[in-house]
């Protein structure tokens, strides 16, 4: 694990790289779950790609509802680690594990039961419905594993240990690479399950990842030493984690719900547009991985430096990370602009309409990807400081004030048609990045100290709301 001195005292560039490189590699590996699914499902046809495309936002919505607890655990563990309050780091890990397991079971069961109603609301075509339903059912069964491993990764990042999660992801990704075509197409006596096979493969590999993550935490060899008494429910911590994590859950839920509403809009233009949107979204998810990994490194460094009361260093970490994110995604965006049809054709090689429409989607938004890197790093700093309300408001602005209204107006009330949806991504990227930087520059986030016993989470929330009011 990177030493406390390395994270808190080494040059910022070096400290960021020591965290960011393993996280980015891990994110790239983890994204291959979706990439492998997209590659093999694309061989089944556009209807099957559409089935996965309409299912993913719904499953993400349910997962997002409980993800705030993992965010709270990561934020608290980072600040306590920076403050050298190691016993509290252990308690945070144990209590977060309990809450995540409980919430994942409830949310997974709810999502499973409501899957048919979600698809009915989305008004998916009959040719897509059954595959989408099967995919969603298996995905919701696996929610408990997704939550557990996400919690493990968040806690380990919070204390600065990023190599162990990377090794686990690497092993399970290799396994998924072999299981995906096996479950989708079948082999010998094993029948092929089509779209559902992709979900089954992910279920098996993420279940294994979750089990390995729990074993690491319980063994106590990597910076966290859990004991039986740490698992005794502590209502004061649960209350603290709830109020800290609730805005984070709202933030991710707002994004997921925005994706679902966008799916309604996309679905109104037919299967080709749905498939183009699905492929374009997968590409966007992949190219933002470097900025996402960098933002996670920024979050860990900001949290630990704030815990150590090195506020100015935390601010410098954010600005450096923001610059790196902008440059990295701008370069990727330029490359994607020139090779857009080739990239889309990799996923759906035999459908010229999807290649043309998907390529147009990628070209339209790719030159603004650098602004996504800016937003991700600023939001990670807000989150690491405990200002979850800030991240929640930015998410609401992005999805509900900027993107969806723009997508609806441009696609339904201008000659752009479905291309208006593509333009909404580009415009939103620029607008939300500008708002994020302006808000961060105000500096009120620096006053948050979650490691101070006299600063309650409700006080942090109240101060964030006052900052919003002052900013209006």
Automatic annotation (TrEMBL):
Alphabetically ordered keywords of this record: Cell membrane, Membrane, Transmembrane, Transmembrane helix, Transport
Protein name: Multidrug resistance protein NorM
Organism per entry: Vibrio olivae
Parts of the chain that traverse the membrane: 12-29, 49-71, 92-114, 134-152, 164-187, 193-218, 256-277, 283-302, 323-348, 360-382, 389-409, 421-441
Keyword S-adenosyl-L-methionine listed: no
UniProt topology in membrane: Multi-pass membrane protein
Subcellular locations according to the entry: Cell inner membrane
InterPro entries the record matches: MATE_fam (IPR002528), MdtK-like (IPR048279), Membrane_Transporter-Flippase (IPR052031)
Keyword Transmembrane helix: yes
CDD domains, A to Z: MATE_like_12
Pfam families (UniProt xref): MatE (PF01554)
């Amino acid at each position: 694990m990177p030493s406390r001195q390395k994270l808190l005292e080494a040059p910022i560039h070096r400290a960021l790289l020591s965290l960011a490189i393993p996280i980015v590699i891990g994110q790239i590996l983890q994204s291959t779950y979706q990439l492998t699914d997209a590659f093999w499902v694309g061989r089944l046809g556009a209807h099957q790609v559409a089935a996965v495309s309409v299912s993913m936002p719904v499953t993400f919505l349910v997962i997002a509802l409980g993800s705030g607890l993992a965010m709270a655990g990561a934020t608290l563990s980072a600040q306590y680690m920076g403050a050298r309050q190691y016993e509290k780091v252990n308690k945070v890990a144990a209590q977060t594990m309990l809450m995540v397991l409980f919430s994942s079971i409830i949310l997974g069961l709810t999502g499973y039961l409501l899957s048919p109603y979600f698809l009915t609301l989305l008004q998916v075509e009959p040719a897509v419905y059954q595959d989408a339903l099967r995919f969603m059912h298996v995905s919701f069964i696996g929610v408990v594993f997704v939550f557990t491993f996400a919690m493990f990764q968040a806690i380990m990042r919070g204390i600065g240990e990023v190599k162990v999660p990377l090794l686990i992801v690497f092993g399970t990704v290799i396994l998924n690479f072999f299981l995906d075509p096996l479950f989708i197409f079948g082999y010998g006596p094993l029948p092929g399950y089509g779209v559902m096979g992709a979900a089954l493969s992910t279920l098996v590999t993420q279940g294994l990842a979750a089990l390995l993550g729990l074993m690491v935490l319980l063994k106590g060899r990597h910076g966290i030493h859990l004991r039986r008494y740490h698992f005794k429910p502590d209502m004061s911590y649960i209350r603290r984690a709830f109020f800290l994590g609730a805005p984070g859950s709202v933030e991710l839920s707002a994004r997921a719900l925005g994706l679902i509403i966008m799916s309604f809009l996309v679905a109104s233009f037919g299967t080709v547009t749905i498939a183009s949107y699905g492929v374009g979204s997968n590409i966007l998810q992949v190219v933002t991985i470097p900025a996402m990994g960098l933002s996670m490194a920024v979050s860990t460094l900001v949290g630990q430096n704030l815990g150590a009361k090195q506020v100015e260093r935390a601010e410098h970490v954010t600005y450096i990370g923001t610059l790196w994110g902008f440059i990295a995604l701008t370069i990727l965006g330029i490359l994607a602009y020139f090779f857009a049809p080739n990239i889309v054709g990799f996923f759906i090689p035999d459908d010229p309409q999807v290649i043309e429409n998907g390529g147009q989607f990628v070209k339209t938004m790719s030159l603004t990807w650098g602004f996504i890197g800016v937003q991700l790093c600023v939001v990670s700093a807000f989150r690491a400081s405990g200002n979850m309300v800030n991240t929640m408001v930015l998410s609401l602005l992005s999805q509900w004030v900027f993107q969806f209204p723009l997508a609806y107006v441009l696609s339904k009330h201008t000659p752009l048609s479905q291309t208006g949806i593509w333009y909404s991504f580009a415009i939103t990227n620029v607008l939300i990045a500008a708002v994020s930087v302006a808000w961060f520059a105000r500096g009120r986030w620096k006053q948050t100290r979650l490691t101070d016993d006299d600063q309650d989470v409700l006080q942090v929330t109240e101060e964030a709301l006052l900052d919003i009011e002052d900013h209006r």
